[in-house]
Design goal:
Oligomer: single chain
Strand order of the largest sheet: 11-10-16-7-8-15-12-13
Number of strands: 31
CATH class of the largest domain: Alpha Beta
Distance between the termini: 54 Å
Radius of gyration: 29 Å
CATH topology of the largest domain: Rossmann fold
Shape: globular
Number of helices: 14
Length: 598
């Protein structure tokens, strides 16, 4: 165990985590040169296209250090985006140490600090690493100063490297061996193995990724899941290289995989503890936290006969993405679907794209919303995340919405535009903290609902890409929320209903009406698209009817002949409007979710 090091790489998005992981794997001979490709641990096409890590990935490497000993390094590569902090938290529970990566030109960012505090919360040893030192804009002394002042870490222990060109990789590996502690645990004690992730294999069932805290797990052993109480026979255990490498057993301190013939996804909880049936542990591994979804949206299959496929796909995806929660939902317009909870808008987008790509589904998502706390006049409290179950306004006493503490780091020249953006999103108690020369942190308390739509995109465009954003949940505060319904030809469209602040109701309703006008095809009669609050119309667009020129054949003669034909046409259109049905295309539902800038 003294020659095992289990660590993860944490950083802000786009600071070079995956590239550094690539170099460490190459340096330790974990992959043949002919098999190597960039972002080798990122297995999804989606991760490669976007250049971000979505899933934590694990690999075991053998490294021969300068002291002559061969060490086993268990590397866990983590995501950087705020929406995937649940992945980071689970990875940190499995580690003794962390490499905190900082970009030599951008310096300490919002998510760098958030991830460092997560690591401190789990009592990890932190090694600061400055990456991208080969860039012309690299300012190593300034970044060292930021690490010392903002993070409170010793700048003398900073390791310098450039993962892209490969300089300093040996120094990083030596720092891992010398500065990070070996795992603690009793190989002869009762088995305690933390399930920190899982994958679904079509042939073998669920493949559990575990960190063995105490004891030993081996093939043929009878084990119990402490949370659910379910028992299974272990079929195979092994280490995670680039592929699964079978071994006889996994002992305390090891990170590897366990296959136990688990076919039903519902039997597994990520964060559960595996123990032996013959000599069980007294308690589960502490520290696991359930994820708390903050954004809710309904997912429907475009074809109603794909509902069962959507059910199976969500079950399998839930195994691979523990932060996703869902429950059954239905809509008059779209049929049966699921109400899903996500950690943020990027998480929602990634889940949608994974369902479409990995499971070949065509999906439709309702407008994202947050969870409101509604107090009724009789004192009863209700949680409302779906506009369709919003109570009658006459029976509501107060409505509260979730507030966040938003933290934005940026160069000081963008203070004015970012303050304006926060004020536009109902930000309050805005304050500044100058981190270093020319660099400022702005904190503001604002409603989560205001961040949902395009806040992150607007922030990136106003700061020309230099602004970084992180947030934490604060509390619930009273608000003046109203339910805005969209009527098409006097018929309400359930999936387009939304809960918004009264001040934002008219602009949002106008946006929806205008987008629907652009995407709904013309009919033989006029179509009114209205946004309403209760019975009051607050926005309207009209799609004009197709108009056949019925007077074309009248080339002269008395005006009454033309008038007679026009009256006949008018009656026909009136009759058609009474019996006509407006089909809303799928593109219309997608169009309304896009912002005006799209």
């Amino acid at each position: 165990m003294k020659r095992i090091r289990t660590f993860c790489i944490i950083a802000h998005i786009d600071h070079g985590k995956s590239t550094l992981a690539d170099r460490l794997i190459q340096h330790c001979g974990g992959v043949e040169d002919r098999d190597f490709r960039d972002q080798i641990l990122d297995s999804m096409d989606l991760e490669r296209e976007r250049g971000i890590t979505i899933k934590s990935n694990t690999i075991s490497l053998d490294y021969e250090a300068k002291d002559g000993e061969t060490y086993q390094l268990n590397l866990i590569d983590t995501p950087g985006h705020v929406d995937f902090s649940h992945e980071v938290r689970r990875s940190l529970m499995s580690c003794e140490g962390a490499l905190l990566l900082v970009d030599a030109s951008q310096g300490v960012e919002a998510q760098t600090m958030a991830n460092m505090y997560l690591a401190i919360e789990h009592d990890l040893e932190i090694v600061p690493v400055i990456n991208k030192i080969d860039l012309p804009s690299a300012d190593i002394e300034r970044v060292k100063e930021e690490i010392e002042e903002d993070l409170g870490l010793d700048s003398d222990e900073v390791v310098l490297c450039s993962a892209k060109v490969g300089t300093g990789i040996q120094d990083v590996l030596e720092a891992i061996v010398n500065q990070l502690p070996p795992p603690e645990g009793d190989p002869d004690g009762p088995l305690q193995a933390l399930i920190f992730d899982a994958q679904y294999d079509a042939y073998r069932g669920a493949v559990l990724l575990v960190r063995v805290m105490n004891g030993e797990i081996r093939a043929g052993q009878r084990v119990r899941f402490m949370h659910t109480g379910v028992e299974h026979q272990v079929e195979e255990v092994g280490l995670l290289k680039l592929e699964r490498v079978k071994s006889e057993s996994l002992s305390a301190g090891a990170v590897g995989y366990v296959i136990a013939g688990i076919k039903s996804v519902s039997e597994i909880n990520i964060g559960d503890t595996i123990t032996g049936v013959e000599m069980p542990a007294e308690e589960a591994v502490p520290g696991y936290r359930e994820s708390k979804p903050v954004v809710f949206s309904s997912v429907y299959p475009m074809a109603s006969d794909e509902y069962l496929e959507l059910t199976k796909a969500l079950e399998k995806l839930k195994l691979n993405d523990a932060a996703l929660i869902y429950e059954k939902d239905s809509s008059q317009a779209l049929g049966f679907g699921y109400r899903c909870g996500f950690l943020g808008l990027l998480h929602l987008e990634i889940v949608q794209q994974r369902l479409e790509r990995e499971y070949d589904l065509s999906l439709l998502l309702s407008a994202p919303s947050v969870r409101y706390r509604v107090t009724m006049t009789d004192g009863e409290k209700r949680w409302v995340d779906n506009p369709s179950i919003y109570p009658d306004p006459g029976s509501i006493d107060t409505v509260e919405e979730p507030f966040i503490k938003a933290s934005v780091m940026m160069p000081d020249r963008y203070i004015g535009t970012v303050m304006e953006l926060c004020r536009d999103r109902r930000g309050e108690n805005t304050s500044f903290n100058y981190l270093s020369v020319g660099r400022v942190e702005l904190t503001s308390e604002m409603p989560l609902a205001e961040v949902l739509f395009d806040f992150y995109d607007r922030l990136k465009s106003t700061t020309q890409g230099y602004g970084s954003f992180d947030y934490e949940m604060l509390d619930y505060r009273e608000t003046d929320a109203v339910k805005v319904e969209i009527l098409v030809n006097s018929e309400p469209v359930d999936p387009l209903a939304q809960l918004v602040h009264r001040d934002k109701a008219r602009p949002r309703a106008l946006h929806y009406c205008d987008r629907l006008k652009e995407t709904i095809p013309k009919q033989q009669f006029k179509i009114a698209i209205q946004g309403t609050i209760g019975g009051n119309v607050i926005a309207r667009s009209t799609i004009n009817a197709y108009r056949k020129d019925v007077t074309a054949k009248c080339y002269g003669g008395d005006i009454s002949r033309k008038r007679k034909l026009l009256e006949k046409q008018k009656k026909g259109k009136k009759r058609m409007k009474m019996v006509g049905n407006v089909e809303i295309p799928q593109a219309a539902f997608i169009a309304v979710l896009k912002t005006d800038s799209d």
